[in-house]
Amino acid sequence: MSKLLIKGGRPLRGETEIKAAKNAVLPILAATLLTEEPCEIHNVPVIADVDNMLKILRSVGSAVEFKEGVISVWNRDATGYNVPTELAKELRSSFFLLGPILARHRRAIVAYPGGCDIGVRPLDIHLKGLSEMGIAIEESHGMIYCDGTRLHGADVALDFPSVGATENLMMAAALAKGRTRIFNAAKEPEIVDLQSFLRALGAKVDGAGGDRIEIEGVEKLHGAVYTPIPDRIVAGTILIAGATCGGEVTVTHVVPDHLDALLFKLNKSSCNLRVNGDRITIRSDSRPRHFDKLETQPYPGFPTDLQSQMMVMMCVSEGTGLIVENIFETRYRIVRELIKMGARITVKDRTAVIRGVRSIEGASVSAGDLRGGAALVIAGLKAEGYTTIDNVSHIDRGYDAIERIFASLGGEISRLR
Ligand code: EPZ
Fold first, then answer.
1. What CATH topology corresponds to 3-18+230-416?
2. 26 lines ligand 1 (CB under 6 A)
3. Could you give the C-alpha distances from 154 to 210, 213, 279, 363, in angstroms and in order?
4. What backbone phi and psi angles, to 5 degrees, belong to 370?
5. Nearest residue CA, atom 15 of ligand 1?
6. 12, 411 contact by CB (below 8 A)
7. Measuring CA to CA, how many Å separate 216 from each of 208, 213, 376?
8. Least confident stretch, 25-39, 84-98, 381-395
9. Is 400 in the pocket of ligand 1 (CB under 6 A)?
10. Section 281-310 average pLDDT
11. Is the preceding omega at residue 100 within 30 degrees of 0, hence cis?
């Protein structure tokens, strides 16, 4: 199990190019199952979640190749409809396969998925929507058996704008007979990107980015070559690191609009932000000014996937700040690790109170989930002295060699094998 070793206390300087978004690439890879023709997905980062998704595609008969950032997928022989349990346990987004497999084969067997342990992460919204589209669902012994012989378009209202459920239903509807309308749909940029990819395959999808998405099912879809949107969460993580450690950091190949909620917060915390086309530069030479409250919300609200990173910045800001995590119920496992580093945080239910301290000290800490692990890297880069981070496999799920990203920005960070 590799560890990261960080010597903190230096400002960060330089620029880094952002690759395609993990949370766009994963549903798009699942959507390639909707066509028997070849697809190519470009600018893909080398991260564990993508590797696992390719394993799952292979397990249902896809032929896949991943070379120099390009994934080529041939799904003509992807006749499988049973996602293997051991792979599904690895990856929550294995559940994205349910919609496309049902659309193509009219039946599916998947295990309850794994993924980050940041909450119960039920699937009731996915399953309720699919049953309204005529899917007969049986659950037993952790497996979900679906009979989609009567799959049809339907009006589906989501109890919560679930990202994964919205994506699953969009993909199931693409080949379903008739019209499907999804009400209270998630509005994340990755949903709009999935709509763009489905359109590239020849699907009739409209309205993504708003709270009502309309899909007219078609008989058949063709292949496509596609470059997904850049990863707003990786870009945001790096910008927050710049704000926290000081210096001057630029992220390139980004879509600034996707980061509005973060940029608004950073603007209020004494950083100097410059947005220029697809580049964002943050300059910070003083202790971050605190902001009173941060609440996570579905897009376009503040993203839950940047909450842990902001917590680290608030740990060394002036004054006292509040975080309310409204999306996942256990996204605070990083707190006990930050307290080891001298942070002053108390948690009650979904609220964390952070009393800013002038400095934090290096310590031996453990990554508990993907974004919490990335936040610990920021804490190590800021801390005085040495920090080691274990369970780095959590971080490798969503960051392509995080130590190389921050070393290129002047951070003293290396991976101990
Ligand atoms: C996606 O997860 C992302 N993952 C998550 O990113 C992200 O944090 C999340 O959306 C919210 O933006 C991928 O896209 C692969 P949800 P997903 O369904 O689809 C509840 C990362 O770090 N819910 O929008 O699982 C659920 O418990 C990951 O990259 C139900 O109750 O998120 C949660 O409280 C972490 N029933 C809330 O909705 C359901 O059927 C949001 O979940 C589905 C969800």
1. UDP-n-acetylglucosamine1-carboxyvinyl-transferase; Chain (3.65.10)
2. yes
3. 18, 12, 41, 54
4. -55, -55
5. 23
6. yes
7. 14, 10, 45
8. 84-98
9. no
10. 94
11. no
Question: Poorest-confidence range of 170-174, 206-210, 289-293?
Answer: 289-293
Atom 44 of ligand 1: nearest residue by CA position: 162
Q: Is the CB of 327 under 6 A from ligand 1?
A: yes
Mutating to test ligand 1, I would choose from 110, 163, 234 the residue with most ligand atoms within 8 A of its C-beta, which is 163
**Helix runs in 201-290, H state only:** 232-245, 260-267
Q: Count of CB atoms within 10 A of residue 186's CB? A: 22
Q: How far is the CA of 54 from the centre of ligand 1 (A)?
A: 21
Longest dimension (CA), the chain: 62
Asked if residue 374 has its Cβ within 6 Å of ligand 1, the reply is: no
Domain-by-domain residue ranges, the chain?
3-18+230-416, 22-226
CATH tag, 22-226: 3.65.10.10
CA distances from 389 to 72, 341, 351, 378, 380 (A): 34, 12, 25, 11, 8
Alpha helices in 260-385 (DSSP H): 260-267, 307-315, 334-340, 370-382
By DSSP bridging, strand 63-67 and strand 70-74 are: antiparallel
Pairwise CA distance, residues 212 & 205, whole Å: 11
Which atom of ligand 1 is nearest to 190's Cα?
14
pLDDT for residue 114 is more than 80: no
CA distance 360 to 82: 49
Instruction: Copy the structure tokens of residue 378.
Output: 């920021």
Same fold across 3-18+230-416 and 22-226:
yes
**For position 382, what pLDDT does the model report?**
98
**The pLDDT value given to residue 116:** 59
Nearest protein Cα to ligand 1, atom 8: 305
64 lines ligand 1 (CB under 6 A): no
Known catalytic membership, residue 116: yes
Give the model confidence (pLDDT) of 350-406 as tens digits.
999 999 999 999 999 999 999 999 999 999 999 999 999 999 999 999 999 999 999
Residue 115 confidence (pLDDT): 57
Across residues 181-194, what is the average pLDDT?
A: 98
pTM of the model: 0.97
Of the residues 39, 116, 146, 271, which is catalytic?
116
